[in-house]
Specification:
CATH architecture of one domain in chain A: 3-Layer(aba) Sandwich
Oligomer: heterodimer
CATH class of one domain in chain A: Alpha Beta
CATH superfamily of one domain in chain A: NagB/RpiA/CoA transferase-like
Largest interface: A-B, 110 and 79 residues
Strand content of chain A: 5-15%
Radius of gyration of chain B: 20 Å
Distance between the termini of chain A: 42 Å
CATH topology of one domain in chain A: Rossmann fold
Largest sheet of chain B: 5 strands, parallel
CATH class of chain B: Alpha Beta
Number of strands of chain A: 10
Bound molecules: iron/sulfur cluster
């Protein structure tokens, strides 16, 4: 055991597995400041209260997260660590900015020709012997998958983590069907066993401490409630899940990239559970958001280099899996899901949000997200990306979310596909104000702020110098009666350095040294 | 209208106007030095894998000999070594649940990341690479590609029903960021640099 410092936090990564040469490793989902303080046990703060279509009160949930200092501090530190590792990884590639630009352009091209690429994908998948289905929305997706499972008499389904199936409410739907769904990603499994949604697109249980996990596992898997050793907890889960994997009637995965020219579904994972889901049962199902299409295999040479570096700071995930055709004697289904995406494509200010590759970098860098936790957003997608896509699913329910931002622009700077996230956050504020989803705002001030934001270079230079959006934007654009973050507290201390000035400074250093 | 026609029609109507040509992806300079063996090994180690470079003329499996000796069930998919579980005779992937060590040959390696590629042909039964407790990989040093871009120029991805890049063993840090090897898949992955077709058949 390592020593705890005054704040109750242990040395980072002291318990992690080591490499062949004995050096500590950090290739998975972030090192941490493990929590050591045991008594009195700090209860895990729960997420936003959901009351039908009523607007989510993110501030209320954030207050409760802030009132749990152990959780809040660990959460903040771990995500900041991911963000720092991402910076180091990005800095290690001279062509990083060029890769981001290429990724963005490939996505623009694909989305502008999405009908053609979907047809190409469908034709190739069918030629590979795959059954292709089209789902109009989440409910349609759930019905289709349920139908496939019923046809095969399947009673159990193992699945890997998929934000799309979360978005569709797939697990909730299946709960009423008598078919058991078993999440096999450790973080996602923890969340399933705790009846909670994932709080982060990459690390679903990042808001939980080991004590929380020990409690959940003790209740649901019968582990020793007094033993909160992480190795013990992870191993218990492995032993508990393995028979479920071996006996499953069907397997399911999400999709990181769908290749039009070959009909391939690509998943990027660390645990090997997507490969177990796709390779053990004799029936496999892949759920695909239609925006996941990319034209060719060679384009993976751009996206794979960006994804894990942006997400975790590692050069690649442990497993990059390419599912193209069924194994002998098995069946393979792919479900192409729209669920509002074709509609969003027509939203002039917001369609580029469809480029998102769900790396989580914008969440890790966001001071609001880090300090309020993903569940405070009360939506499938949280953090900056959530602010700009949640309102497309339900304008009223998520009308307050675009105000949970300090507008520091950091999300835009780290996004590997160059989505202008902070500008879209601001654009949503205007839309929601104009449509009276929120009380009328001071239009003139919003307009002035809009002008500053519409010139990204100027805006970045300005917040770089001032180190705070507050110095550049009218106070009202940052704090207003509905800015759920600003309520009762000032702007969080500005991130130590903005990404752009950090990048410039470091790039110069390195170039100079060459 | 069906969901398919509906979605396609809405895309045709809503898609962003303009040319938006597909960009040409340039050939980026490799991030690694000329010694691909060393670069590969170093990066594999950072991702939690192990690297073994056999001494010429000696047991190529020396690095994993102890593990093999302690294993009850060995599944080999390579001619260099024979196990005691014949992958060709496996009726169901589930029958591999008790495999201690699996040995397979990689199609190629990638120096930029320390990755190795398998397809269904090398694995024989895909699940063996995940159900086994430990994975031993033979890689011909001549098969190490410089980077991920070069990997995706290979025809394997378009031809294989299943192709997978493994980079180290199964891993998770989902609980408080503590890194654990063997989350759901193999607990360890060892790459032995071993040219194709030169090693005498050894017995496990
Ligand atoms: S919006 Fe960009 S940074 Fe955020 S998750 Fe998506 S791809 Fe990553």
């Amino acid at each position: 055991m390592t020593n705890a410092d005054q704040s109750g936090l242990r040395e980072p990564a002291a318990e992690s597995d080591r490499g062949q040469d004995g050096r500590p490793l950090q290739h998975a989902e972030a090192a941490t400041q493990p929590v050591a303080v045991k008594a009195p046990r700090e209860a895990q703060p729960r997420g936003a209260k959901i009351r039908g279509d009523r607007p989510i009160d993110q501030a209320e949930a954030a207050e409760r997260f802030l009132a749990a200092p152990l959780h809040q501090k660990a959460h903040d530190a771990r995500l900041w660590d991911l963000r720092s590792k991402r910076d180091t990884a990005a800095f290690g590639i001279p062509e990083w900015e060029e890769l981001r630009e290429l990724a963005s352009q490939i996505k623009t091209h694909t989305l502008a020709n999405l009908d053609r690429y979907l047809l190409e994908f469908e034709a190739n998948a069918k030629a590979n012997g795959v059954h292709v289905h089209w789902a109009a929305d989440g409910a349609d997706h759930n019905r289709i998958v349920h139908g496939i499972l019923k046809d095969h008499g399947a009673k159990t389904l193992i699945k890997s983590k998929s934000m799309l199936t979360e978005e569709c409410g797939f697990r909730h739907y299946m709960a009423g069907t008598g078919i058991e769904v078993i999440e096999t990603d450790l973080g996602e499994r923890i969340q399933q066993l705790d009846n909670e949604e994932p709080s982060h697109v990459v690390v679903p249980a990042v808001h939980k401490t080991r004590l929380d996990v020990a409690e959940v596992f003790a209740k649901t898997m019968g582990t020793d409630p007094e033993n909160d050793d992480v190795h013990y907890l992870a191993e218990s889960q492995r032993m508990h899940t393995r028979p479920l994997i071996l006996n499953a009637d069907a397997g399911m995965t999400g999709c990181n990239f769908a290749i039009a020219e070959t009909g391939t579904v690509v998943t990027c994972t660390n645990e090997g559970n997507a490969d177990l889901s796709g390779n053990v049962p004799k029936l496999q199902i892949h759920s695909i958001g239609i925006e996941k299409l990319i034209p060719k295999i060679e384009h993976l040479g751009v996206f794979i280099r960006l994804l894990s570096r942006s997400a975790l700071g590692s050069p690649i995930t442990q497993y990059t899996s390419h599912f193209r055709a069924p194994r002998d004697g098995t069946e393979m289904h792919m479900v192409l899901v729209d669920n509002g995406r074709s509609e969003r494509l027509g939203m002039e200010e917001f369609w580029t949000s469809l480029k998102c590759i769900r790396c989580g970098a914008c969440m890790n860098t966001c001071p609001v997200y880090r300090r309020s936790g993903g569940l405070s957003y009360g939506a499938t997608y949280s953090g900056p990306i959530g602010l700009i896509i949640d309102p497309t699913f339900n304008k009223r329910k998520y009308s307050t979310l675009p105000f949970s931002s300090t507008m520091n622009g950091s999300c835009t700077n780290v996004c590997p596909v160059k989505i202008n996230i902070h500008e879209q956050i601001f654009a949503w504020r205007k839309v929601l104000a104009e449509e009276h989803q929120i009380p009328l705002l001071k239009q003139g001030m919003m307009k002035a702020a809009g002008q500053v934001l519409s010139r990204p270079a100027t805006y970045r230079a300005a917040i770089g110098a001032a180190d705070s959006a507050l110095k550049v934007l009218p106070r009202f654009a940052v704090y207003n009666p509905l800015n759920t973050w600003g309520k009762g507290r000032e702007m969080p201390d500005s991130p130590r350095q903005t990404f752009h000035s950090w990048y410039k400074q470091n790039r110069m250093k390195k170039d100079g040294a060459r | 209208m069906s969901a398919r026609e509906d979605t396609l029609a809405r895309i045709a109507q809503n898609r962003p106007k303009g040319d938006h040509a597909l960009p040409v992806v340039p050939n980026f300079a490799p991030l690694v030095g000329d010694d691909l063996e060393a670069e590969f090994g170093e990066r594999l180690k950072r991702m939690g894998g192990r690297i073994a470079v056999p001494v010429p003329g000696e047991d190529p499996f020396a690095a994993v000999r102890e593990r093999l000796d302690g294993a009850a069930v060995i599944a080999s998919a390579v001619p260099e070594i024979s196990g005691n579980r014949d992958l060709a005779q496996v009726a169901r992937p589930q029958d591999l649940a008790d495999v201690d060590v699996a040995i397979v040959r990689a199609v190629f390696g990638v120096a930029e990341t320390g990755s190795v590629l398998f397809t269904q042909r090398e694995l024989q039964v895909n699940a063996v690479a995940y159900l086994a407790q430990h994975l031993v990989v033979l890689l011909d040093p001549a098969d190490i590609l410089v980077n991920i871009q070069a990997a995706y120029r290979r025809a394997d991805f378009a031809q294989a029903a299943y192709a997978v890049l493994h980079t180290g063993p199964s891993a998770t840090a989902d609980i408080e960021g503590v890194l654990i090897h063997g989350a759901q898949g193999v607990r360890s992955l060892t790459v032995i640099l071993c040219p194709r077709g030169t090693t005498e058949n050894a017995t496990a």
